[in-house]
Write a structure and sequence with these properties.
The chain is α/β, with parallel strands linked by helices. The chain has 3 domains: 32 residues, no CATH class; 115 residues, 3-Layer(aba) Sandwich (D-Maltodextrin-Binding Protein, domain 2); 111 residues, D-Maltodextrin-Binding Protein, domain 2 (3-Layer(aba) Sandwich). It contains 10 helices and 10 strands.
């Protein structure tokens, strides 16, 4: 509802009748439309989903709550991750989520706020008894799948030192899972709390996959971000709106510690 001053003059009738007309006109005024903002993302359940033309998911709920506080209306654009990243990195005033905050990306973006917490690990199909990983260097003998422009690719190349001929890059996590489920990849990287939708899609159960290695460097928060050099007033507006939702149930749900509290337990890795 828009609060405005309304003067109505009626020659006949009581003062009460005049007030009622003024109140009626006040409620009949349409609300001010929220300003649009472009928001790019990939499909990555359960945080970002896209079904029947509708963007949803745990992180999406946080983003929408923040934008509501900021008086902004999201105009979603769903792409494979590499395209979404390149668009957000090259175009001012375009919001992107959820993105790992890495040293390589630090200077490219203004970081608005955390929007998810992950504990990534390497997983295989349980039926692949031939794959044995006890330490990080063991993955060099296997084909590992990941997504182009994903932080995991940087980690695989620079930290894990994965040979180039043992690294297969896909446009998005959906395609990585498709190849993994068909046995075209030996290993891939994901979070145990984020795999259920992909298991369902490929008619797999948790007993069909096994996390063989969790690495401390792959435990991280992901962020909402916008290109460095975007409108400073917009950046401030987004940060202020995020600060207003920091205690919200939606944000606490995606950041709460118990999501990943047991993931480094070796028993968990073997059981799942």
């Amino acid at each position: 509802m828009v609060a405005v001053a309304v003067q109505v003059q009626i020659k006949t009738g009581s003062r009460l009748w005049w007030q009622n007309w003024g109140l009626l006109l006040l409620f009949m005024l349409p609300p001010l439309a929220a300003e649009p903002i472009r928001v790019v993302l990939e499909v990555s359940p359960p945080h970002q989903t896209f079904d029947n033309g509708q963007v949803a998911g745990l992180s999406t709920e946080v983003v929408e709550l923040m934008l509501q506080q900021a008086g902004l209306q999201p105009r979603y654009e769903v792409y494979p991750w590499a395209r979404a990243f390149r668009l957000a990195a090259s175009t001012p005033n375009v919001l992107i989520y959820n993105m790992a905050r890495t040293p390589e990306r630090e200077g490219q973006f203004d970081w608005i706020g955390k929007v998810a917490r992950y504990q990534f690990g390497l997983l295989k199909l349980t039926s692949r008894y031939d794959i044995k990983v006890q330490q990080l260097s063991d993955i060099h003998g296997y084909v590992v799948g990941a997504q182009r422009e994903d932080f995991a690719v940087e980690w695989l190349k620079n930290v894990a030192k994965q040979p180039a001929n043992r690294l297969q890059l896909q446009p998005d996590v959906v395609e990585t899972w498709r190849l993994f489920a068909k046995g075209k990849l030996d290993l891939m990287i994901d979070d145990p709390n984020a795999i259920q939708a992909m298991l369902d899609k490929h008619q797999l159960t948790r007993a069909d996959v096994q996390f063989v290695l969790f690495v401390p460097e792959l435990e991280l928060y992901s962020w909402i971000a916008i290109k460095k050099g975007s409108d400073p007033a917009l950046v401030l507006r987004l940060r202020q709106a995020y600060a207003q939702i920091e205690g919200s149930p939606q944000l606490q749900k995606v950041l709460r510690p118990e999501l990943t509290g047991t993931l480094t337990d070796p028993a968990f890795a073997q059981a799942h």
